[in-house]
Amino acid sequence: MKSTLNKAHHWVTQSILLTKLNFKVTLLLGSAYIFAYLLVPSIPSLSFISPFLIIAWPISTMIFINFFRLTQDKKETDFKTLVKIDKESIRVLIYLGVICLFYSLLISLILSSDIKNILAAASEPEISEDISNNVFSIVIKFMVLAIPVLMATWFSPILIAYHNFGLIKAIKSSFAGVLLSIVPITLSWLILLGGFISLIFLMIMVFTILGSSENVLVSYVLIFLCMIVLAAYIATLFSFQYTTYKDVYKSIIK
């Protein structure tokens, strides 16, 4: 147990330190990710782009991984080097993205009836007290359904791009790598998530005291700072992904 805690502590520390090395570019990449994967799908006129964004997600992952790899090695991180992936690897990464797209559609299909029930309940004059329970149930179902694809894609984009693994081999190796370190990976993820939630909560408390509910300008400042923290958190998850890869697959890294 002690070794697991030490490993989780090491991964979290290394991930945060790696994120801080080139913090301005880190925030820029994190903000671009928020725009592409959170804001664009929420705009009705641009929702048609969502499937293409999901297909491109493994390539987006490798842009982050390339950035943290170059940053760690103290090499130049211009746009050309960030997107430097050989054509064969890009082809396999796109196949992986297609799998992610079909799996996301499957999750949507499974959860569609629950979502419809919540929307129907929310439209009634008297909102049911069960809505919060239904929302919680959907979140739990989504997390459980998402676990297989997270395990399949945690290491596979890196193995494809850096080690020329085929699609099936990369997915199998990713599953195996996650299973071998499932406890420290989960613990590290919970620590990072807890830190993010705590920081957001602290900021909201401080700005509430400063009168954000009454002052529009203060409210905008709070929203802006929350977006910065979210961008940093998202980027840190990718640096965590790279950090775990270096440790789990150190035997095949040249």
Write the layout of secondary structure elements.
Elements: H1 2-21, H2 23-39, H3 50-55, H4 57-72, H5 79-82, H6 87-122, H7 131-153, H8 156-163, H9 167-180, H10 182-209, H11 216-248
Helix pairs in contact: 1-10, 1-11, 2-11, 4-11, 6-7, 7-9, 8-9, 10-11
Give a description of the structure.
This protein is mostly helical. The chain has eleven helices and no strands. It has helices at residues 2-21, 23-39, 50-55, 57-72, 79-82, 87-122, 131-153, 156-163, 167-180, 182-209, 216-248. Helix 1 (2-21) crosses helix 10, helix 1 packs across helix 11 and helix 4 (57-72) packs across helix 11. The longest helix is centred in the middle third of the chain and has 36 residues, at 87-122. The chain is globular, with a radius of gyration of 20 Å. The mean pLDDT is 86.
Key features?
254 residues, mainly alpha
Based on DSSP secondary structure assignment, what is the total number of beta strands? 0
> Terminal Cα separation, in Å?
30 Å
Show unreliable segments: none
* Beta strand %: under 5%
Class by alpha and beta content? mainly alpha
**Judging from the principal axes of the Cα atoms, what is the shape?**
globular
Query: What number is the mean pLDDT?
Result: 86
Per DSSP, the total helix count is 11
| Percent of residues in helices | over 70%
Tell me the radius of gyration.
Answer: 20 Å
Order of helices and strands: HHHHHHHHHHH
Question: How would you sum up this structure in a few lines?
Answer:
By secondary structure, the protein is mostly helical. The protein contains eleven helices and no strands.
